[in-house]
Design goal:
The chain is an alpha/beta fold. It has helices at about 15-25, 45-55, 65-80, 95-105, 120-130, 150-155, 180-190, 250-260, 270-280, 285-305, 330-345, 370-380; strands spanning about 30, 90, 110-115, 130-135, 140, 145, 160-165, 195-200, 225-230, 245, 310-315, 320-325, 345, 350, 360-365. It has 2 domains: about 5-40 and about 285-380, Aspartate Aminotransferase, domain 1, CATH 3.90.1150.10; about 45-280, Type I PLP-dependent aspartate aminotransferase-like (Major domain) (Aspartate Aminotransferase, domain 2), CATH 3.40.640.10. It has 12 helices and 15 strands. The protein starts with 16 loop residues before the first helix and ends with a helix. The structure holds pyridoxal-5'-phosphate.
Length: about 375
């Protein structure tokens, strides 16, 4: 994959000096903490965007038939999902949709179940809407994270808990939940009348022959599900992305739609529309190459860590890796400061994803093999007695 050399000149969040100073205490650091890619975006998307900018102005747009067809084909060919376009609402971001769902279907202090260590903004959204975070932590068994069904059943039964948010593929631990695992989750939600929100933003980056299953496969069994999705991660479009909420149940959809209308959230962004339609129609090969490169990067990391005390939790999906430092450190602050100071690589501390992630770190590997290898070597060197 070709690396986008120009990103160094962009005002990207990951290299914002103010943010680096706050998070890492210095600005002279190689940022590998934000989940976006350093690969050049797909050539057909570049061309389509250039053409859209060069040839016309920016009047109000709607999504044309060609957009829906491209999207439907993508889901059909890749996931055997027949999208019902009447079920889809478009929203500026996944976290916007989750906030709206929480506010519409629960009241203050209602419990919302999450599965930490998990994408930190779930926690922020639950706190900001004044609901209670109920944790159903993942279990690490033989170096693989698993769902704790017994604990989930107990928490789902409690009257005050009304929503479960799952992340599939799971950020940061990289699990891609199997059909059997998801079926059990759906059944628990059904038995306890929980609204199931499935964040599937990382669905297109599935590695080493693993298979992604959307909870949409279970909509015949249970309709109280919402899939939050976006192609932002898959095609490195975070800076111009919007997102979709797939909502099979009419009442839930209508309620969400009326809030979208209230705040005028459903506007079509011309550049996003062009980028997405092109990605769906012409992005397959580029994405295959991304996946191959990420797999090779995982293999290289595994190789570098062979004789190290740092353990890799091998990802099944996403382009992040989850590194286990429990054999080296006892204190999470010491781990973070030591690695940041000595390696000059900016990683996410695991506890940012919940205290269940303490003594782990997340590293973005959607970049060149050279950079990944050099960075992991610096991290290995930074760790004492390694
Ligand atoms: C699991 C997950 N959901 C959502 C997002 C962000 O999506 P949005 O910007 O649409 O809220 C991310 C970004 O890292 C993510 O990892």
């Amino acid at each position: 994959m070709k690396i986008d050399e120009k990103i160094k000149e962009l005002p990207l969040t990951k290299s914002n000096p103010k943010t680096l100073e706050i998070l890492f205490g210095k600005t002279d650091i190689t940022p590998m903490w934000v989940a976006d890619m350093e690969f050049e975006i797909a050539k057909p998307i570049q061309d389509a965007l250039k053409e859209r900018i060069t040839n016309s102005g920016f009047g109000y747009e709607y999504k044309p038939e060609s957009f829906f067809l491209a999207q439907e084909n993508w889901y059909n060919e890749n996931y055997a999902i027949d999208l019902n376009r009447k079920h889809i609402l478009y929203s500026p971001s996944i976290t916007t949709t989750i906030s709206i769902l929480i506010e519409n279907f629960t009241s203050e202090n209602t419990g919302v179940i999450t599965q930490p260590p998990v994408f930190m903004e779930f926690k922020d959204v639950i706190r900001n809407t004044k609901r209670r975070i109920i944790k159903n932590p993942l279990k690490l068994v033989n170096n693989q994270y698993q769902l704790d069904f017994k604990d989930l059943e107990e928490k789902a039964k409690l009257e005050n808990n009304k929503i479960l948010i799952i992340c599939n593929p799971h950020n940061p631990v990289g699990r891609v939940w199997t059909k059997q695992e998801l079926e059990r989750v759906v059944n628990i939600c059904k038995e306890n009348d929980l609204l199931l929100i499935s964040d599937e933003i990382h669905k297109d980056i599935v590695l080493f022959g693993n298979q992604f299953t959307s909870v949409l496969h279970f909509q015949e069994i249970y309709e109280k599900i919402v899939v939050c999705n976006s192609e932002a991660k898959s095609f490195n479009l975070c800076g111009i992305a919007d997102s979709m909420a797939i909502i099979p149940n009419e009442d839930i959809r209508n309620a969400v739609f009326s809030t979208f209308k209230k705040y005028n959230l459903g506007r079509t962004n011309a550049l996003t529309r062009v980028a997405l339609e092109t990605a769906y129609n012409e992005g397959h090969l580029w994405l295959e190459n991304v996946i191959k490169t990420v797999e090779e990067n995982v293999d290289s990391i595994e190789n570098e860590l062979k004789n190290s005390k740092i353990q890799l939790i091998k990802p099944e999906g996403t382009y992040q890796i989850w590194l286990d430092f429990r054999e080296v450190y006892k204190d999470t602050k010491e781990m973070f400061n030591n690695i940041t100071e000595k390696s000059d690589i900016g990683l996410n501390a695991g506890h940012w994803f919940g205290r269940e992630g303490a003594l782990f770190m997340r590293m973005n590997i959607a970049t060149s093999k050279e950079k990944v290898v050099k960075s992991i070597q610096k991290i290995i060197k930074a760790v004492p007695n390694n």
